[in-house]
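Need Sugar ABC transporter ATP-binding protein's 3D structure for a figure. Predict it.
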Amino acid sequence: MTRTEPGQPLVTLDGARKSFGAIRALDAVTLTIDRGECLALVGHNGAGKSTLVNLINGALAPSGGTVSYGLPDGQVVTGGGGMRAAGIRAVHQELSLCPNLTVLENLRIPQRDLTGRGWRALAAARIGQALDRIFPGHGIHPRAVVGDLTLAERQMVEIAIGFAEGAIAPRLVILDEPTSSLDASIARQLLTHIRAFCAAGGAVIFISHMMGEVFDVASRIVVMKDGRITGDRPTVEFTRETLVAAMGHVAPGAASARAAPQDSATILTTPEGLTARKGEIVGLAGLAGHGQAAALARFYLGRTSDWRQSDPPAAVFVAGDRARDGLMPLWSIRLNTSLARLPGLVRRGLVDRRAEAELAETWKARIGIRSDDLTNPILSLSGGNQQKVLFARALATAAPVVVMDDPMRGVDVGTKTQVYAMIRTEAEAGRTFLWYSTETDEILLCDRVFVFRNGTIVAELTGDGITEAAILAHSFDQRETA
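Structure prediction for Sugar ABC transporter ATP-binding protein:
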């Protein structure tokens, strides 16, 4: 386990800067990270959080200033080469597991001492112990192929790799949106482990747009805006309102829920029993992995599998797992934005590039995509801004049904509020939304909610019956609990 050596901080940044051409992503950042603290790093998408942690984990070299690491033996090393010896681990927002390898084989990639005869047994023991310690009852076998796991299970494996014991014990673990694919019960397990890890002398950098988690687990909050640190105080000195204000957004109020007219016609029905009316926002709730995403996929593919692309399409899809289901990684921001509208942009057999550019610029402004040039590669954007592009792609169409599979992963609180308002406006105009989310606060914004358990709808909630208590009560088998 982590040892609590006295002495120098784990990491020290002194005037650290990072530029990409003319773009200054990080501007003279000075920061220290000590043992035993959970430091929450917050800010809107594009504020510089990912650049900062990539300097700390050695993925990027600073353009100016220094990054220093305190080693277990008391030495101080400057430069990214000291990251591994200092016990710095990173769990990225965009999961980096190799899907064709097993869980234990993925552990071998960062842990280079796993060699020779018997390394598989040792790797299985290390990753199994980490999973058991962080996520009791996880059910993930070390020899399972990662590509066969759900998104939530892959995120659990990536987190466990970050905390797993090795030749060099983890001393600072960077967690970038670690609960974005986890349901509330699994997220609570992780937060409990973070507190225990820090109490034992470890440290965590916790990046999250979920304010409740930040206040629950962080001992200190660092606010970033436009590549600079604009606030650095103990968590107890912030409130939710002052923290959101420090990030540069207006604090979000509760979005008004509006039940669809009960006499409006049902426009869709799925084999699972899920129904929706025109202009209704229908939520899919329950513990992660209980059939919600599969139900959405079956519905969407059933409406859009015809090879003849229509304009408007029968339904559009906003993916939460954008790397797998959403982005065209070799395309530009503009092409990714306009993809679903291509049939309507064709003139005499060719795409009207001017109309395509105007469409992309319009949605850049409407949804706040942070880029100076929409011809840049989509992967040049932060994760949250990539997700904005997927929303823009869907809402730019006139599709009557929008299917959303946990779409707010990695999106900052200001953008979430803006998107919630856009969804409600579109619903009032007659568009129907099917919305699966692992965030209870989002489900509470829906007009009607279907709770899934073990692949089956076990409850339908409407009006005042849509509460967190009701959702949780139906998510668990009460006979088993008793």
